[in-house]
Amino acid sequence: MSRSASKSEEKSHSFRFRRPEDSDSGDEVSRPQSGRRSSYITKSTGACVHCKSLKVRCEFGPGENACQRCQAGNIPCESRSRKKRKAAPTHEDLQERAHSQDCQIQSLLLQFDRMRTEKKIQVFMSHAYSGEYGDIDKLSNCQLPRLAIETGGRKFSRLGYRALLNLSPPDIVKHCCLYPGDITELFTMCVLPFFSILDPELHTPQKLIWTCPFLFTVICATASRYCTSKAGLYSLARDFARDAAGKALVDGVKKIDICQAYLLLGVYPSPKKKWAEDRSWLLMGVAIRMALELELHLPPPYDCDEREALNRTRTWLNCYCVDGSHAIQFGKMPMLRLDDYTARTSQNWYRSSSINMPYDVHLVAYVQILLIMAKWRSIDLDVVQFTVQTERELTKEWSLWFGRYEEELVRNPFPLCYYRANTTEMITAYLRLVVLATGFQDAFKLGLSRDSDILRRSIDAARTVIQIMVERLYQTGFLKYAMDANFLYVSFSAAYLLNLLRPKLLPLLDENTHEEIIRTVERLISVLGSEDVALDGRHTPALYSRFLINLLSKYNARPKRRSETPPDSIRFHPQFNEERRPSPPGWPDIQQIPGSSEHGTAPTLSGYEPGLIYQEAGDADMDFSLGHFVRTVSELPSNQYQYNNVDSTLWNDQWNVWPSQLKW
């Protein structure tokens, strides 16, 4: 066979003649060079499937469509086709896939949060577990629906039993073993009447347990400290309240109930090991900022319900009072405007509606008194002269509200109304002392005598503050529920009086005034440290009682009589620590270099007037401001003021004189 014939035969084997309908989509099609148009010459792109698996070339006979190897093996000769490409996903497919992944991630995060919460609750339980409650971290599944139905009340009964099964009570209910009777006791018997910010018609446990679990938790936690039937519950409940505060801040939900919850946490702080650990100012700031964002400082909307409108205004006025009181205590600028419209126009708000609370009159009176203090802080004039003027304005303002109190007490003769009226008078006297103490330290540089108007008025204001608490508030039995700020007021007043006993200032007092100051402070110490007021040795009144004991022992040089004993009606807490504590620092002194004076030197010998007491060159400068007092107390470790049994030598035979009935 010639070479040309061999090439022709190989060429014929490498071509397959098929009809157009027999051609594969994967074959390469070309027209033959001949003139026949009825068929196509299809060139194989490679070996068939079977030959490809054997890694050999296909061999075709003349005019055959199947290779010889497939024919010999009786195997279908199938040409290899191009693999079908997977269709590209559409935009909708991508969105659905992303949503599915997001749901999966969210589910994993929820599982992680649930595990972390359970771990945190286990830590709470390990710290505060008490065997008298049994296994309080486990309630059977049948108890929770029953609890939800009982506490849900008629308003939530429309949800049905199946809907209530899906609702989860707050953690404080599930893990503190709180049943409907316990919740009712915490809301009505203990603390709720003392929260002037809450309306008993709006803030019911049946409503708050579902609408605002945060406020519900705060009320239960705060009240648990005063509930004797659940001893030991407070240490666990406060952890849940603190945890709920953090969750509410992270969630970013803005509601009036949440604002009120932060305010309550700020004015009823939990005990801390150190004064510096107290975060009341932070919680107050969150509440005030939320109130501004809720526009509570503006008049209520026209479509607002009447009770809800009162709730908005009441919450804002409480924010104004908390902000003003905190600014005065620490000597800082308030967060709110001094000329706030709602505060300035609130004189008659307490009787603007028939559903006003009986305690709204006391809230409005406090607002008007703080407006006078705001004016005093904003003016920088002759300190001594303006001090006396402001003190007279405060006295006049209290006289005005005293008359209004008498009118309201005729309509609402409740014991708590008398208590609040006495508290407002005590706060007014305390603010008078704050103003007069500032003028006293300036007048002392110029010279003071026994007949000084500022000295006489300041002593009267300080004694009034203490007498109201000892003779009126203590007799009501409500004093243990008071805010910590009330105990700060009387402690500052007592410290101011004791400072007058130092040798430098002692000539300003006659013998009767000297003895009266000692008796007044001793009576206050006994009240603050008694079991009827101090819940335990860490409660704020007990700490201030220990502070005043040390301060009195430092400045009281009169001889002690062992026959003096406290009255039998007062019971004191057990002794926490018998170790003798050092005396507190010399408040209100400010350390200076000897021989120097920030305000110059005292008058020369030729400039002295008989009977006047001056601040001489080299004497430590004194700061009688409340802010300096708070800072002095805050810098001391709290264990220095753990309450001990009061020495019987601190008492005198005047103790048997107690008011037999409530006086106001």
From TrEMBL:
Major location category of this protein: nucleus
InterPro entries (UniProt xref): prtT, XnlR_reg_dom, Zn2-C6_fun-type_DNA-bd_sf, Zn2Cys6_DnaBD
Annotated Zn(2)-C6 fungal-type domain residues: 47-77
Ranges of biased composition (kind: Basic and acidic residues): 1-22, 89-99
A molecular-function term among this protein's GO annotations: zinc ion binding
Start and end residues of each stretch annotated as Disordered: 1-39, 78-99, 559-608
Keywords: DNA-binding, Metal-binding, Nucleus, Transcription, Transcription regulation
Example GO biological process: DNA-templated transcription
Location relative to the cell: Nucleus
CC per GO annotation: nucleus
Entries under Pfam families matching the protein: Fungal_trans (PF04082), Zn_clus (PF00172)
Superkingdom in the source lineage: Eukaryota
Listed name of the protein: Fungal-specific transcription factor domain-containing protein
